[in-house]
Write a structure and sequence with these properties.
The structure holds two protein chains of two kinds.
Chain A lengths: L1 H13 L8 E12 L2 E13 L4 E5 L6 H9 L6 E6 L2 E2 L10 E4 L11 H11 L4 H14 L15 H13 L5 E5 L7 H18 L2 E6 L2 H7 L2 E6 L2 E6 L1 H6 L4 H6 L4 E11 L2 E7 L2 E6 L8 E6 L5 E3 L8 E12 L3 E8 L4 E7 L13 E6 L5 E3 L2
Parallel strand pairs in A: 3-8, 3-9, 6-7, 7-8
Antiparallel strand pairs in A: 1-2, 1-4, 4-5, 9-10, 11-12, 11-14, 12-13, 14-20, 15-19, 16-17, 16-19, 17-18
Chain B lengths: L4 H28 L1 E4 L3 E4 L4 H9 L1 H32 L4 H9 L6 H11 L7 H6 L13 H25 L3 H9 L4 H30 L2 H6 L7 H10 L4 H26 L1 H9 L1
Antiparallel strand pairs in B: 1-2
Classes of the chains: A alpha+beta, B mainly alpha.
Chain lengths: 381, 283
């Protein structure tokens, strides 16, 4: 393994500097002709992916994430914009001449070749010496734990094993970046979770830049160093998992990542350190920060686990909202409460099942919801 | 009852084959070793020497048939593969239309189409006589009664049977597998030779089976488009049966042809079995 790593470091050294981003997209647009009409799948994406980073493209199906990845791999030509790999403009370079490898959604293993031949395919095309191919294929099969299965055909293997063959087939080439297109989509939950940890381990071990396309937000949050959340052909937010979860940039991101409550109102007044929104009656939402002005209409998100639910009126500088519980769902680790507010809005609250706690509220109870000002996050609308 | 249900499924087809294939074959096998003539009747004498005699007497036609079949098969592969490839990968939404076009000749009788070629290609027909008067070809130029005409007719008549199985095999090739090859540094050409071609070989294999056998046994093309020097074994069998009424020799020739073909096909399947081909292609 150390030799593979040395190879990568040598490659990084050869590229001159590790400051050069592994992948850069510059105003990339992709248009398709669909029944005579131009459809924009990607509407101007600019991003820079750092060497050695685990980077995710996250979004619902049809958001343009796969098209974006395919432009990095070279399978799609951008209608506008440039693609750079390690400081080189590769916009017009065909896929077989780009030093990135892809793990396909359905693995796309060669059905007429056994495991060993599948993994050796790239090295053979690059005319690597036979004994070196033998050594490197052996090494990578060990990393993905497939030693002893060299002679198997893809169809004789389980989904998880095929997945690892696909990974080995790409990684054995020491690519400058590995592109993974929903690689765990076809696996069941248990195996998927195991493979998430496995992928992360392999990525640390080989130190290669991973670009990971997924629609599964928990997968992206678990594995990524940074995430680009895509919506309708554009990047809505590009940040660390924590940032994206805690401070969603748009209502779409707030809704797509985890469960989120959206409350909107008008700024009533500014006091020391926070803005106060009036929602009607005694209800108020406190938003940290003094950038707002009285009269501004703003939307605020708050995560369900940040909200306290109680049958007594809370005190202090906290947001306070009254409502009625209309659903309590026991979820093992926590209870989920659905609370309807006076204006008809719905708020979801998660409360952890601590050592000896019983459910704080029952269906039909009138309750107070409260949370700290810093957990109200104002988002652009 | 349930245990016999699967056998019920093969009953209609099975019976059909037994009655219309096995029974006549047993009958013909019996005829082949009989002696006599039409007027006085045939008597079973277990005269196996007819096989040796027929093979020696008509070995030229046997070899010629095999040669024609082989050449026509090779030409068919060369012509059918690009067509099948184009329909499978570039056909888009109109694939079924193109397939229908491939099958369109079947709507007109095989013999009728071949006969119309005879008219079209006749020495003073509508194609050659204007060309001759314009001096494009010499006056003694002719197409009919040549090897080229017979092989051309064979290819023309059996081409769809080569296109269809190759198309089916190519259609099943996952385009992402081709992309994977390109992603793994294969240029367009080696993505084809290392991935698409090996994955489509079962189709070529099936196409060869479906065309080589009937082309080798064909007598219509040689009979209509060929001359005396183009006689194939099928024509000999036809003449023996229908003109000379020499049933034993005709039956013996038929069986010999069948045996030779079966041996050839088994040898071919063994040497080029799909698995072996794939193994070789993976290297």
């Amino acid at each position: 393994m150390t030799e593979t790593q040395a190879g990568i470091e040598a490659a990084a050294a050869a590229s001159g500097s590790s400051n050069v981003p592994a992948i850069e997209l510059d105003g990339v647009v992709k248009e398709y002709l669909s029944q005579g009409e131009a459809v924009r799948a990607v509407k101007g994406v600019t991003m820079s992916i750092t060497e050695g980073e685990f980077f995710s493209l996250l979004g619902p199906s049809g958001c343009g994430k796969t098209t974006t990845m395919r432009m990095i791999a070279g399978f799609e030509d951008p209608t506008q914009g440039k693609v750079w790999l390690h400081g080189q403009d590769v916009t017009d370079v065909p896929p077989n001449k780009r030093d990135v490898n892809m793990v396909f959604q359905s693995y796309a293993l060669f059905p007429h070749m056994n495991v060993w031949e599948n993994v050796a395919f790239g090295l053979r095309r690059k005319k690597v010496a036979a004994d070196e191919i033998k050594r490197r294929v052996g090494e990578i099969l060990e990393i993905v734990d497939l030693t002893g299965r060299e002679k198997r055909r893809p169809r004789e293997m389980s989904g998880g094993q095929q997945q690892r063959v696909a990974l080995a087939r790409a990684l054995v080439n020491n690519p400058r970046a590995l592109l993974l297109d929903e690689p765990l989509g076809a696996l069941d939950l248990k195996l998927r979770q195991a493979m998430q940890i496995e992928l992360k381990r392999i990525q640390r071990e080989v130190g290669i830049t991973f670009v990971y396309v997924t629609h599964d937000q928990s997968e992206a949050l678990t594995m990524s160093d940074r995430i680009a959340v895509m919506n309708d052909g554009q990047v809505d937010q590009l940040a660390s998992p924590r940032e994206i979860y805690e401070r969603p940039a748009t209502p779409f991101v707030a809704g797509f990542i985890g469960t989120s409550n959206l409350l909107s109102g008008t700024v009533d007044r500014i006091t020391s350190g926070f803005a106060v929104l009036k929602l009607g009656g005694e209800d108020r939402v406190l938003v940290a920060g003094e950038t707002h002005r009285a009269g501004d209409p703003i939307a605020v998100t708050v995560r369900p686990e940040k909200i306290r639910i109680s049958t007594e009126e809370p005190t202090g500088d906290v947001s306070v909202v009254r409502g009625t519980v209309f659903e309590v769902v026991y979820l093992g680790l926590y209870n989920s409460y659905a609370v309807s507010l006076a204006d008809g809005a719905e708020v979801t609250v998660f409360q952890q099942n601590a050592v000896d706690s019983t459910s704080t509220a029952e269906r039909g109870d009138a309750v107070w919801l409260s949370w700290q000002p810093q957990h109200s996050y104002a988002i652009g609308s | 009852m349930k245990r016999f249900a699967p056998y019920l499924l093969i009953l209609p087809g099975g019976l059909w084959l037994v009655i219309f294939l096995v029974v006549p074959m047993v009958f013909m096998a019996s005829v082949s070793t009989q002696e006599g003539d039409v007027v006085n009747g045939f008597v079973q004498t277990f005269n196996f020497s007819v096989y040796g005699d027929a093979l020696v007497q008509y070995q030229t036609q046997f070899l010629r048939s095999a040669g024609y079949g082989l050449v026509a098969t090779v030409i068919s592969i060369a012509m059918a593969y690009p067509v099948a490839y184009w329909i499978a990968f570039k056909g888009g939404a109109r694939k079924s239309t193109y397939l229908l076009l491939v099958l369109l000749p079947f709507f007109v009788s095989f013999v009728l189409r071949t006969v119309s070629w005879k008219f079209l290609l006749a020495d003073d027909g509508i194609l050659l006589s204007p060309m001759k008067s314009m001096g494009l070809v010499p006056d003694d130029f002719h197409v009919l009664q040549t090897t080229t005409a017979v092989i051309g007719g064979l290819v023309y008549n059996y081409l769809p049977f080569m296109i269809l199985p190759i198309y089916v095999a190519l259609e099943r090739v996952d385009p992402r597998v081709v992309e994977a090859a390109q992603d793994l540094y294969a240029a367009k050409r080696s993505a084809f030779t290392k991935v698409v071609l090996p994955l489509s070989l079962p189709g070529v294999f099936a196409g060869v089976l479906m065309t080589f056998v009937p082309m080798t046994a064909d007598y219509v093309n040689a009979g209509i488009l060929g001359g005396p020097q183009n006689t194939m074994i099928g024509n000999i069998i036809q003449t023996k049966y229908l003109v000379n009424n020499d049933y034993p020799t005709a039956a013996a020739l038929s069986f010999t042809l069948m045996a030779v073909m079966l041996i050839g096909i088994f040898a071919y399947a063994k040497a080029l079995g799909t698995e072996n081909v794939l193994e070789a292609a993976a290297r």
